[in-house]
Amino acid sequence: MEFLRFGVVVFPGSNCDHDCFYVLNNVLKQDVKYIWHKEIEVRDVDCIVLPGGFSYGDYLRTGAIARFSPIMQGVIDFANKGGLVIGICNGFQILLEAGLLPGAMLRNKNVHFICKHVHIKLLNKNTPFTNLYKKDEVLKIPIAHNEGNYYIDEKGLKTLKENNQIVFQYCANPNGAADNIAGIINKEGNVLGMMPHPERSSEKELGSQDGLFIFKSIVEWVK
Amino acid sequence: MITSETYRSLGLTDKEYQKILSLLKREPTVTELAMFAAEWSEHCGYVSSRNLLKILPKTGKYKTLIGEDSGGIFVDDIAIIFKMESHNHPSQVEPKQGAATGVGGIIRDIFTAGARPIASLNSLRFGSLSEPYNKYLLQGVVDGIQFYGNCLGVPTIGGEIYFDESYNGNCLVNAMSIGIAKKNELAKACAFGEGNSIMYVGASTGRDGIGGCSVLASHEFSEGDAKRPTVQIGDPFMEKCLIEATLEILSTGYVLGIKDMGAAGLTCAVSEMASDGESGIDMELCNIPLREKHMEPWEIMVSESQARMLVCVKAGKEKAIKNIFSKWDLNAVTIGKVIKDKMVRIWDNGKILVEVKADILTKAPIYDMPYKKPEYMKKINNLDIDVVHEPSDYNIVLLNLLKSPSIASKEWVYEQYDHMIQLNTVVLPGSDAAVIRLKGTNKAIAATTDCNSRYCYLNPYRGAQIAVAEAARNLVCSGAEPASVTDCLNFGNPKKPDRYWQFKNCVQGITDACEFFDVSVASGNVSFYNENPAGAVYPTPAIGMIGIIDDINKVCTQYFKNEDDLIILLGISLEELGGSEYLKLVHELVRGDAPELDLKMERAVQLTTLEAIRDGLVNSAHDLSEGGLAVGLAECCMSNKEKLIGAVVDNLNFDIRTDALLFGESQSRIILSCAEKSLNQIKKIAKKHKTSLQVIGSTGGNRFIVSNNDNKLIDLSLEKLQDTWSNALRRDIDSSN
Amino acid sequence: MLKAKVYVNLKNTVVDPQGLATKNALKSLNYEREIEEVRVGKLIDIRLDMSDRKKAEQMIDEMCKKLLSNPTIEDYSFTLEEVE
After folding, report:
1. Could you tell me the pTM of the whole model?
2. CB contact at 8 A, B148 and B236
3. Are residues B337 and B193 in the same domain?
């Protein structure tokens, strides 16, 4: 296979869709297409990206309305068949609402939107999304969110830990997230949700390339 | 029957009403009257300012485009469209929604020109933070800007915030937006071609902002709470969809003209599209999507509901346009057509309501306003520097300056703005100017907003010149060539001759400085009636300036990069304290004249800096402004949070007072740092441009030390400096909450 | 016509950052002593074009479970009343 086929889902209010497209297409030189949220089936892609943004204005509850977009049944089917799905920021929130990942998002502890570079520590490098990193590597990747305060009950947290599902932890907790969680994966290991934006740290000019290896890892894995 | 009470309450004068009667040769209908009142208001018609604004330069070194609702410049085949606009009074009443809709409005001006918005900036002024209401305003305005901009996905990359008692009761919220388009993708804001359709797209019409246009913006501000019902509510989600749908319809080639329904809503859009297209529009009100029941026709015509636009579409292509809008779940309905005679004709269920020549509506009267030098100037322009005592401890003065909210780090603010989205922000907020790259090219845009209004208060003409010079200096420090300006002119009541004198002199100052630097004024906005019971706010001609960086690898930032670099001061430090933050903060004086400004010297300093950056000789460049040399140097040491670098400044040898040396705000000065081996080449460049250059010290260590003849003036640890500067604003805000 | 008022609140076991911030703000307005706790929730009004109360209750309950609340972090309750 020469190129990987990525599908970036566009919900009304998505606003990192172009950024993800740009990095996958212009930086990583892979095959990318947009998938409109009104489509009902996912076809001809190797990996689905649920991008960041404010799907449906974050109205009612972040990710809650997008979760009922027609495409989400397609995404769920795709994931259940083992397809790779990565949800970034709002995409992570949608995966939580859709039940593809456990837990929920609360407002940031300081009740403000936070946009800044943060450092996150890699806890699990044996995933399709992180296989190119070094063990325990610390990455510099920006966050930009209002609701990144990850919540899960104690039992759920225990399960996450037992199954090695916590993929990234903040080195300094910016938002109040339980157990410093910045990103988790499902039990099966094919659906990743993360609050930091790897597409924003994929080029030298933007101050960090640490995020690029997530996308590169995906390409490596599928190949 | 229209009474004098009716038209007066709409803001029209007796004379203006007589003019309407003679133009129409009959009594206007209520709807027509409301439309005249809206179009002829200060806000839409620029009746007191248009005569003066004519002198602003429309050309400069970059080819300039002056559009109907925005302007821009061309760089190769890219059009960079930008504009700044005020939303002061709405923000004073309801800060979150006021600021949010201000951002929304300016961004609509950008994308209706056919450009994709790629960055926002702002220029904000508040009264003292010791007043709880001002704290509420600051928090609300920042919340509104983040709420709207973040959701839209347009990065807020820079801005400025100042605090002064003069803004008590009348904050200033000026929002600027920048967009880019291919040269041939630009859209016009006019309607033409008989038989083509006029479509209404976007949100439904409600009673938002009814009267906001002529009543809210044209009266001095005192009874805030009573006017709350006219506040507009922003819906960034809707506007995000509108951006995508609009850029999509513009790419079809079926759109002949498009205009945002901003101030005065439908009235302004219909009459100006017709007038600018030298045609007429015939339209029916009953097709307009309404959000509220029983709206009167005049209410529909002047409603300022957000996120609506009027589009002129090629006949027969309405369906294609409609399909794109339904894809985004937005309204798009045909409400009229272009007609040959230059009339605005409006029907309500087949009944004629309005029949007026388009350019009668749009040609608002223009007034020459009387002006007179303000009395206060005589009193305050004299400053006897000898009665100002030198402080005993310069460390304390420096820390107090770094703590003052106008100088303190604005991290608390810009961390709430998504400043990285769209993957272009090469220099993040916190340096002299923000830099965004132009994808697909090797170029970048630098942008800044600037205005020291205390200088403008002391000397309107020179203060405005300094605002332009300093904006250019900020850009140069990032490695950019200053290219073009958008101005947002915030003044008091123009009917008062002393206020108008300030306005006139500021406009002249901007004009002369822009002409000197050969930069155009591509767009702008005027906001009058910024007053509180104590008088007018300081004259605040906010300057938004963009610059071009030809090689993205030659971008510069303000903070020191390495240990053992040399620190260079370009420019001359005079013994002047007038208008300085130091004088205000330490001696509680707002006196004297604004700092001297020699435009030739300013240009020499800028050319030296730019050439040195482009030749790769410089590791950092920072402009000196509020707080002077000491504050500027401290910022160089600590504005990169990840890597603080100390400095030892021990070669000052200036023959002026110590406080003026450390905290005076002499213009045309820039701090550079460089490796020792680059010094000779930088000296050569400085000599070529006849710029004064002095090596004043070197970087390194973990303290910031300034000494004069072995006498330590300042000696502080970087941790202390950083903690004071970067947490001051947060502490101020949290102090009583 | 029936009107439902749906209340959605964070569960008591879940930290409520908005509630905490509001509580601190109220305290600074001199309600220091009286305030014990503040929780911020949502009120959603739904007008139903139907008269069968039982059916309506079932339907609203379903809406709450599906969309209006997130059972991981939120509780809901609602009232139904006749309206014109």
Report:
1. 0.94
2. yes
3. yes
